[in-house]
Amino acid sequence: MNDKAAHPRRIAWIAPAVVNLILGCAGVFPLGFLWIFLAQYPLAALGLTDREPTDNDGIVPWLILLVGGVGTFIVVWMGINAGLRKLSRLARPQYWLFSTALSLLPFAALAIFPDIGKSLGLF
Amino acid sequence: MDEMVLRAQRFINTIYGSVPGINKVAEDGITGWSTMYALTRCLQHELGITALSDNFGPTTMSTLQSKWPSIGRSTGAPANLVRIIQSGLYCKGYDGGEIDGLFNDRVAAAVQKLKSDVGVSSVYPGDAMVPKLFKALLNMDAYVVISGGSSTVRSIQQWMNARYVNRANFFIVPCDGYFSRDVQKALMLAIQFELGMSDAQATGVFGPATQAGLKANTLSVGSSGPWVQLFSAAMVFNRRDGVTFTSTFDSNLSGKVRTFQDFVKLPVTGNGDFQTWASLLVSTGDATRKGSAFDCVTEITPARADALKAAGYSIAGRYLCNVPNTTLNKMIQPGELAVLAAKGLRVFPIYQTWGGSADYFRYAQGVNDALAAIEWARYHGFKSGTRIYFAVDFDALDYQVTSNIIPHFRGIADTVSEHTGGYKVGIYGPRNVCSRVSGEGLTSASFVSDMSTGFSGNLGYPMPTDWAFDQIATINVGSGAGSIQIDNNIASGLDDGQSSFNPGTVEANLDVDFDMSKRDALLHDIQNYLISIGVPEEGGSDIFDKDNATLGCNTTTEAFDITLAHDRLITSLARQLKMRKALIQCPILWEIRKWNMGDMVADGVVRSHYTNGSPIDKNDCSTGLAQIFAETAIKARNYSIQQGIISGTILDPEKETDLWPVWQKLQDESYNISTVAYVHIWGAHELGLPRPGLTTSEDDTRRILARYNGVTAEAEQYGRELLGLYKVFEKYHAPLRNS
């Protein structure tokens, strides 16, 4: 009985896993952009990173891009995952933790293994 | 969209859609040549002609004349022939009485109205359609005054139609109030008819027989009849103010003739003599007139100068430079100006390299040409006040003048006014080109290529009001060592040319145009250098690289090619300002490579601030090819103006009314690139450094490049990185300028 109940639950994780991996691949770009913003402004202000000298139009355009680009991605990501979670009837905390982790995975992989990006022709 | 025109188009497609040689027309309800051509082909088909053509030519005319010399209520013409008439009437704006194949009262009234508009009611009485009227129906000519047309011109057009339509080779001309190429030809035919020429002899060409006839028909006060009507028509067509279409040569007309003769520099007699006729009828006028000016592609040696002086010439037009990659050595030769000055010949300079088609002409090319012409003029020693004539040596159509020539001359005018202390801009070209460019206020005198009598830009256009030289014939002057071929020019007196010259400036060690055969090698070195400082060919080098912001924007190769596309302008600027072209190229290439979404958004925010009142208070940003703030551009240009480096108006970098126009101008690549040079000059001054020149030290170059980016700590890095780029460029430029 227990085995039969566990099997559908495991299957229920497959769709969120696939979707979040795909979202994570697409999310490399907004996340990369988020990093550029952080490195260029708040982290640079704290002395933790160096500013790119060519960019001299100030923070406003980047904030607009941040809201427009990254914000849109987050809204889409949350919308899709909210729907998926309802459909899958998976437990809320585990679902969001799992989805977030999977979505960050491609970015983390590129950060830890830069050669992956090079071999994919991204860098 | 006209419902009846649409029905005419449906008639064509329905009845003739499957006839070989008659293509279906677009059913858009708009009259155009395609519909008129189709109707012509339909007519040919109805007449039994098998080789269909867009042209209503002799075969169509003769067949129509033999089969249907008159189509009316009771002539029994086939219904489709009547439908073609009805369709043509609708397309011409008349009531065709439906498209039912019935020559009804409405069709008859429309044909009568058409005859009246064309001026042939008395020649073709009644309401029947006749062959020449049919031909007039199936084209795009208008028979009512159209916008901007003259009712006087229309009355002449109607008069010519009425008087000459029965001549075999005279076809109905438009009655739209406009003097055009066709109307000009009709006037010439009319003169030949009045001279008694047969239909075969009357060709519309201003040949020897016509000239001889006109010489025998001098008009003066008291003359009357058709000759006076033709003469006054020619005066009206040449837009002589206050002239009416008249059959009586009175004192008023004589006075107007005197004014015209004085304008075109003919003997002022007040009579309608041959030379006056000639000037009214063909762009050369009497091509045997002896001018006092000339232009030539040959060096004027002392012997030739003597021969020219003896022939009565006093002003010479000479070319500032040769055309690159050609063998013709037409430019002013070393020592030639001194010879001319010593012999008492004055000189006006002409700038012509390419320019034989519309494609060449555009704003950026105008800027390039102006910079080159200025440099050459200074090289030869032309003084302030000299007018340089920039050539348009092809038959530019009116729309090409609008789309290409005027922007080109705007570039010339902007650049000459910015970079010189007194050179003026003239134009060499056909009448219409000269008049239109002058009308825009871009030139101050015209050198008219009237020798090209067949140019559409000369036919049907009056002499430009600001003409200085009228090029009418190529002739040979002198003999032996003094022999020379020249273009004989009439001078109006508006421009006397120059009689004295500076020694001329010969600058050594200036940069030259890039040798494009080294393009790949230079690109390779630049790519390697940029990679060495962490700037890959595209985007960034890893996920944390801030250059990822440039992903999807410009690659290094693209940035390089855009920079190289402006090599001529950059070289000219560098030579003009006596600085290194690499100094200008570095920020351009770098900023193009580093351009990203943030820059695009910044542009949008600023544009929105000025146009939509955006709530975001951002009135300036770095923009354009080399990413320059309007404020910086204003400060840099102000400084250059104050230093006498360029001419212009001092602007206030604090005022948005000045910032916004400059920000917009920075979108123009030529303006943006020239501003880079001024920013460097201003930047050096801000740093307390000497003006960037040909021997600026490496360290000063680095500091000037850093200043381009600002005064922050990051700018130092910018300067270091760009200095490396500068060295790569210099590796290629230095050997070229020393070769």
Offer a few descriptive terms.
heterodimer, A: 123 residues, mainly alpha, 6 helices, B: 739 residues, alpha/beta, Muramoyl-pentapeptide Carboxypeptidase, domain 1, TIM Barrel, 4 domains, 8-stranded mixed β-barrel, 8 strands, 47% helix, globular
Q: TL;DR?
A:
Chain A is mainly α.
Describe, in plain words, how this protein is organized in 3D.
Chain A: Keywords: Membrane, Transmembrane, Transmembrane helix. Chain B: This is DUF1906 domain-containing protein. Chain B: Pfam families: PG_binding_1 (PF01471), Rv2525c_GlyHyd-like (PF08924). The complex is a heterodimer of chains A (123) and B (739). In chain A, 80% of the residues lie in helices and 0% in strands. Chain A is mostly helical. Chain A has a domain of 86 residues. Chain A starts with a helix and ends with a helix. By secondary structure, chain B is an alpha/beta fold. Chain B has four domains: 138 residues, no CATH class; 137 residues, PGBD-like superfamily/PGBD (Muramoyl-pentapeptide Carboxypeptidase, domain 1), CATH 1.10.101; 199 residues, Alpha-Beta Barrel (TIM Barrel); 223 residues, no CATH class. In chain B, strands 1-2-3-4-5-6-7-8 form an eight-stranded mixed β-barrel, surrounded by five helices. Chain B starts with a helix and ends with a helix.
H-E order of chain A: HHHHHH
The fraction of residues in strands of chain B falls at 5-15%
> Multimeric state of these chains?
heterodimer
Distance between the termini of chain A: 51 Å
Largest sheet of chain B: 8 strands, mixed, barrel
Arithmetic mean pLDDT of chain B: 95
Number of helices of chain B: 27
Keywords (chain A): Membrane, Transmembrane, Transmembrane helix
Transmembrane segments (chain A): 12-39, 59-83, 95-113
Domain Peptidoglycan binding-like (chain B): 244-280
InterPro entries (chain B): GH, Peptidoglycan-bd-like, PGBD-like_sf, Rv2525c-like_Glyco_Hydro-like
